[in-house]
Design brief:
- It is a single chain.
- By secondary structure, this protein is an alpha/beta fold.
- The chain has two domains: 23-259, Type I PLP-dependent aspartate aminotransferase-like (Major domain) (Aspartate Aminotransferase, domain 2), CATH 3.40.640; 262-362, Alpha-Beta Complex (Aspartate Aminotransferase, domain 1), CATH 3.90.1150.10.
- It contains nine helices and 14 strands.
- The protein has helices spanning 19-27, 47-64, 78-90, 104-114, 229-234, 244-259, 262-282, 308-320, 345-362; strands at 8-9, 70-75, 96-100, 118-122, 147-151, 153-154, 159-160, 172-175, 192-196, 207-212, 288-289, 300-304, 323-324, 335-338.
- A seven-stranded mixed beta sheet has the order 2-10-9-8-5-3-4, sandwiched between helices. A three-stranded antiparallel beta sheet has the order 11-12-14, covered by helices on one side.
- Helix 2 (47-64) packs parallel to helix 6.
- The longest helix is centred in the C-terminal third of the chain and has 21 residues, at 262-282.
């Protein structure tokens, strides 16, 4: 399949990848230039792969302007494993972790953390069906907490933090899976950031973790080795065999991001794409956005139509028109357009045009 025949993929993840990245991977799938083997065949202990990994890490550092006192790890198990690894490594016995509850994935993180230690749930918007980010006045933090956990973007509900909570000197931990590198990021505001790669960074199977070095001292030797941040940091993400192909694709994606002007450049594009789509949602009232306007996500645009029957027809007709993956998450229904970094602007234009025509015929 060539890029000319690709449909518009609005899937929430695994999500659309940049066409230039896929094309380069296709050209070099059988044999990397100068290597004579596929990236999936070379040893993860070889200099070839270590160079690929180190270059990807260097590009990540450059893109996010990561301070020197942070480690960049490429792990496995997805963000869901981080729901356990974060408290296992950072939440010591006798301490409390604060969790801000802003959506379905935040709720899952809370449930996993409670299996490890003491959790204080603060600032929940569950009573409002997670249609907004809590105000600062709604967040009551525990003095001396081990850390504060937030979910930067709520994939299912279509909400996103647009300013960070004030946590004082407590380490702030952020699940950025569905927003990572969608705009400039002040890494120094966080103790730890983690993200599944399959939204904005690359293919599924890699989890990016950026952790401040002083927090590695909390990782106890009694932890299972593969769940210990300190072990992975000491071994440069090569304690065991990593997802070599995933690292390769992630590295290509970072170079693609740099070619667009880095996080500043992609942030401008993402603001433009989201504004165009929200403007259409708000235009007449035929469509109704589900997230409160001040909390709307740049990455996952959620909306409803007047009835479930109308929504089923919208999904059917949009799919037939080459606009795939618009059905909302089964937990909330409605529509969801995931417009991650690699989603092209012309795809947003195509959706807006379809929405107008659908409204014209059925409004």
């Amino acid at each position: 399949m060539t890029t000319a025949t690709r449909i518009y993929n609005f899937s929430a993840g695994p999500a659309v990848l940049p066409a230039p990245v896929l094309e380069e991977a296709q050209r070099h799938l059988v044999a990397l230039p100068g290597v004579g083997m596929s990236v999936m065949e070379i040893s993860h202990r070889s200099k070839v792969f270590e160079d690929l990994l180190n270059e990807a890490v260097a590009d990540i550092r450059a893109l996010a302007k990561i301070p020197s006192n942070y480690k960049v790890l490429m792990l496995q198990g997805g963000a869901s494993l981080q729901f356990s690894m974060v408290p296992m490594n950072l939440l010591a016995a006798g301490t409390v972790a604060d969790y801000i509850d802003t959506g379905s994935w935040a709720d899952k993180a809370i449930k996993e953390a409670k299996k490890i230690g003491t959790v204080n749930v603060t600032g929940s918007t569950k009573a409002d069906n997670y249609n907004r980010i809590p105000a600062a006045s709604e967040i009551s933090l525990t003095p001396g907490a081990a850390y504060v956990h937030m979910t930067g973007n709520n994939t299912i509900e279509g909400t996103q933090w647009h300013s960070l909570p004030d946590v004082g000197g407590v380490p702030l931990v952020n699940d950025t899976s569905s927003e990572m590198f969608c705009r400039p990021l002040d890494v120094a505001r966080f103790g730890l950031i983690y993200a599944g790669a399959q939204k904005n960074l690359g293919p599924s199977g890699i989890t990016l973790v950026i952790v401040r070095e002083d927090l590695l001292a909390r990782s106890k030797d009694s932890l299972p080795t593969m769940l210990n941040y300190k072990v992975h940091a000491e071994n440069g993400s090569l304690y065991n065999t990593p997802n070599t192909f995933g690292v390769y694709i992630l590295g290509l994606t970072m170079k693609w991001l740099k070619s667009l002007g880095g996080l500043e450049g992609i942030g401008i594009v993402n603001e433009r794409k989201a504004a165009r789509l929200y403007a259409e949602i708000d235009r007449t009232g035929f469509y109704r956005g589900t997230a409160q306007k001040e909390s709307r996500s740049l990455m996952n645009v959620t909306f409803r139509l007047g009835s479930e029957d109308l929504e089923k027809q919208f999904v059917k007709e949009s799919t037939a028109a080459g606009l795939d993956g618009l059905k909302g998450h089964r937990a909330v229904g409605g529509m969801r357009a995931s417009i991650y970094n690699a989603f092209p602007e012309e795809g947003v234009d195509a959706l807006v045009e379809f929405m107008r025509e659908f409204e014209r015929k059925r409004g």
